[in-house]
C-alpha cells in the first residue's frame, strides 16, 4: 500500500502518541484567502501513529513548524487511494475542527470541494 | 537481594453468550513474568478461572491485559488494591491500546515489550521513583532475548476440561509485516516480522510439558525460509499445534503436517474458489481448518453475508468462528469510523467482537447483530460446536497414538471443567462426547 507522491509536497515527521516517531504527507494550499493544511496518511511508510489518532497533536506540530496559527487554517485529513481492491482504502478527505474536549468534528469533503482546493 | 512479592493478575471478562467456553492458560502474564528478576516472588491469578484474594500479602500488583474487554475490570481491580494502599502497574496489549485512559487508573503503565526492561521498573518502584509511563513503543528488544515463559506459574488443573488439558500458547515470532484493516498488531508489535531464532524456539518448545500448543503468532506465512526451517526443526519434538495461516505452498504444508500442524485458523472473507481450494489443500495434508469469518465491513451487504454463510456449508470447515467487526483503537477501521461519526458505543466491555458498536454501511446495527447470531446457529445446527471440537480432538489423539505421545485424560479431573464441578444436568452433547472419548481411550488399550 504505497501512497503516491502526488498526495504530498513533503514528508512531515512528527511525534505521535507517546512520542512515537511518525510521518505523514503534507501539502499546504492557499485558496481564496484560506490556508488549507492537508495531512495524508502514509500507511506502510508511517512507522508510528496514524494522522487521525495523532489529531490535534499533529496539527500543533505542523503549525509550529510552518509558523501558522491553528485558528487561521482549515485542517484536512486525507486517506489516499492506494489502488487496493478493498473499498475502504479509497480516497477520502475530511475537514477536522478541533475541540478542547477531544470530541473533534469531522466533515467529509465532496469531490467538488477537493477539486477546488487542489486545483485538479 | 531482598525478595519482593508481586501479585500478577489477568482480569476476567464476560464470555460471549451461547458459545462453548474454554479457558486457555494466558500467555502475556507468563511472558512478562519471565522478564522479572529472580528476587521477585510472583503469585499469579487468572481471574477467569479463580477469584482474586485482594487481601493476599504482596508488595506490588501488576495487571496483565490482552483484551479490550478486560480493561474496565482491570481498573476496578486497581481501585480495590488502591484502597489497600498498594501500587498497581499495568501492561499488555490492551494496556497499550487504551494507554491514555489506563494512566488515570493505575500508578504506572508499561508500553511495549518487557524483555530487558522489567528490572528497571522494579528498581524504580523500590527507590520511590516509579515513572507514570514506561514507553518502549516502537523500541523492540532483540528478538533473541525472548526466552521461555514462566509456565510454572499456571495452576494446571484450572485449565483442564473433563480431564483434558488445554493447549499452551506459544510465540515463535513477533510483529507483522501486514497491516490489515481491522488489526492493531502493526501498532503493538511493529510492522516488521521478527522471527525468533529457530534454535531458541526448539529449546523453548521442548521445555513445555504440554504436547499440545497454540502458536499464536499473527501469521506464520511471512518468511517462507524461516517457516520451513522452523517446521523441520520442531518435527522431532512431536508436538501437535494449532496456528494461524501457513504459507499456501505444497512443500511448506507438507513440512507443517510432519511438524505436527493440527489445525489452522483461516480467514474466509469471500465465496471464491480460492478459499474453497485453500481449505481443501490444508485437508489434503491432514491439517484441520477453523474458518474465521468477520462480519460488518463496509464492503458487505446483507446479501453478501447471507451468501458467505451459505458458502461455509460448501467448503467443509472443521469449525467456524464468527466475529463482528470492532473498531479497536489504533486500527484504520477505528480512524475511518471515528471520522465518519459512526461509532455509537465507546463502552469497552462491548468490544467483544460479538456486539455491534457502530453503524454498519449497508444495514442497521440490529440486522448485523441478527446475521451474526444466525451464522452461529446455522453453522452449528447439525452438529454442535463442542461435538465438532471433539472430532478435531479425536484427530489429534489418533495421531498422537500413532507416534506414541498420546496421554490419556486425567480421570481425577473428569468431573471438573476449569476448576468447577461439571453440571451433570446439562448432558445433551456431553454424553455423546464423553462416550466417544472413552471409546477412543479403549482403542489405545
Provide a quick synopsis of the model.
The complex is a heterodimer of chains A (120) and B (445). Chain A is α+β, with helices and mostly antiparallel strands.
Characterise this structure:
- The complex is a heterodimer of chains A (120) and B (445).
- Chain A contains three helices and six strands, in the order E-E-E-H-H-E-E-E-H.
- In chain A, 29% of the residues are buried.
- Chain A is an alpha+beta fold.
- Helices cover 19% and strands 34% of the residues of chain A.
- Chain A has a six-stranded mixed sheet.
- Chain A has one domain.
- Chain B has 445 residues and is of the alpha/beta class.
- Chain B folds into three domains: 4-143, Rossmann fold (3-Layer(aba) Sandwich), CATH 3.40.50; 152-390, Aldolase class I (TIM Barrel, Alpha-Beta Barrel), CATH 3.20.20; 391-444, no CATH class.
- In chain B, the strands form five sheets. A six-stranded parallel sheet of chain B has the order 2-1-3-4-5-6.
- The longest helix of chain B is centred in the C-terminal third of the chain and has 19 residues, at 385-403.
- Chain B is globular and about 60 Å long.
- The chains are: A alpha+beta (120), B alpha/beta (445).
Amino acid at each position: 500500500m504505497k501512497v503516491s507522491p502526488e498526495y504530498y509536497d513533503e514528508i512531515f515527521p512528527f511525534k505521535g502518541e507517546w512520542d512515537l516517531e511518525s510521518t505523514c504527507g503534507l501539502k499546504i494550499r492557499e485558496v481564496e484567502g484560506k490556508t488549507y493544511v492537508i495531512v495524508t496518511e502514509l500507511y506502510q511508510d508511517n512507522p508510528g501513529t496514524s494522522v487521525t489518532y495523532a489529531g490535534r497533536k499533529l496539527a500543533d506540530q505542523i503549525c509550529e513548524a510552518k509558523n501558522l496559527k491553528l485558528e487561521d487554517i482549515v485542517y484536512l485529513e486525507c486517506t489516499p487511494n492506494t489502488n487496493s481492491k478493498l473499498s475502504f482504502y479509497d480516497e477520502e478527505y475530511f475537514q477536522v475542527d478541533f475541540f478542547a474536549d477531544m470530541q473533534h468534528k469531522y466533515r467529509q469533503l465532496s469531490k467538488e470541494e477537493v477539486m477546488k482546493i487542489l486545483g485538479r | 537481594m531482598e525478595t519482593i512479592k508481586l501479585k500478577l493478575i489477568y482480569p476476567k471478562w464476560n464470555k460471549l453468550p451461547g458459545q462453548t467456553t474454554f479457558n486457555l492458560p494466558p500467555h502475556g502474564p507468563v511472558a512478562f513474568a519471565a522478564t522479572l528478576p529472580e528476587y521477585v516472588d510472583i503469585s499469579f491469578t487468572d481471574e477467569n478461572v479463580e477469584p482474586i484474594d485482594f487481601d493476599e500479602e504482596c508488595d506490588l500488583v501488576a495487571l496483565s491485559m490482552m483484551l479490550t474487554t478486560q480493561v474496565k475490570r482491570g481498573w476496578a481491580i486497581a481501585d480495590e488494591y488502591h484502597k489497600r494502599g498498594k501500587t498497581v502497574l499495568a501492561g499488555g496489549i490492551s494496556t497499550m491500546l487504551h494507554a491514555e485512559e489506563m494512566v488515570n487508573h493505575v500508578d504506572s503503565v508499561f508500553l511495549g515489550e518487557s524483555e530487558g526492561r522489567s528490572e528497571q521498573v522494579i528498581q524504580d518502584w523500590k527507590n520511590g521513583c516509579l515513572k507514570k509511563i514506561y514507553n518502549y513503543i516502537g523500541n523492540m528488544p532483540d528478538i533473541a532475548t525472548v526466552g521461555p515463559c514462566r509456565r510454572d506459574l499456571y495452576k494446571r488443573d484450572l485449565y483442564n476440561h473433563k480431564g483434558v488439558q488445554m493447549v499452551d500458547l506459544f510465540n515463535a515470532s513477533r510483529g507483522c509485516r501486514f497491516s490489515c484493516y481491522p488489526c492493531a498488531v502493526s501498532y503493538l508489535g511493529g510492522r516488521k516480522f521478527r522471527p525468533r531464532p529457530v534454535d531458541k524456539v526448539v529449546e523453548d518448545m521442548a521445555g513445555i510439558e504440554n504436547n499440545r500448543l497454540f502458536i499464536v503468532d499473527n501469521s506464520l506465512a511471512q518468511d517462507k525460509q524461516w517457516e520451513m526451517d522452523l517446521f523441520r526443526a520442531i518435527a522431532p519434538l512431536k508436538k501437535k499445534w494449532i496456528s494461524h495461516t501457513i504459507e499456501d505452498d505444497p512443500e511448506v504444508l507438507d513440512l507443517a503436517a510432519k511438524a505436527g500442524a493440527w489445525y489452522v485458523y483461516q480467514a474466509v472473507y469471500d465465496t471464491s474458489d480460492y478459499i474453497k481450494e485453500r481449505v481443501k489443500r490444508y485437508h489434503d495434508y491432514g491439517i484441520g481448518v477453523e474458518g474465521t469469518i468477520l462480519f460488518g465491513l463496509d464492503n458487505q451487504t446483507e446479501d453478501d453475508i447471507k451468501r458467505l454463510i451459505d458458502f461455509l456449508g460448501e467448503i467443509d470447515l472443521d469449525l467456524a468462528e464468527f466475529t463482528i467487526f470492532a473498531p479497536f483503537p489504533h486500527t484504520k477501521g477505528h480512524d475511518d469510523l471515528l471520522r465518519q461519526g459512526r461509532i455509537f458505543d465507546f463502552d469497552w466491555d462491548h468490544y467483544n467482537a460479538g456486539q455491534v458498536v457502530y453503524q454498519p454501511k449497508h444495514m442497521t446495527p440490529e440486522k448485523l447483530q441478527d446475521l451474526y447470531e444466525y451464522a452461529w446457529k446455522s453453522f452449528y445446527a447439525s452438529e454442535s460446536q463442542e461435538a465438532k471440537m471433539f472430532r478435531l480432538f479425536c484427530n489429534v489423539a489418533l495421531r498422537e497414538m500413532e507416534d506414541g505421545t498420546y496421554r490419556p485424560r486425567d480421570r481425577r479431573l473428569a468431573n471438573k471443567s476449569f476448576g468447577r464441578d461439571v453440571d451433570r444436568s446439562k448432558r445433551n452433547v456431553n454424553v455423546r462426547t464423553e462416550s466417544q472419548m472413552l471409546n477412543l481411550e479403549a482403542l489405545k488399550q
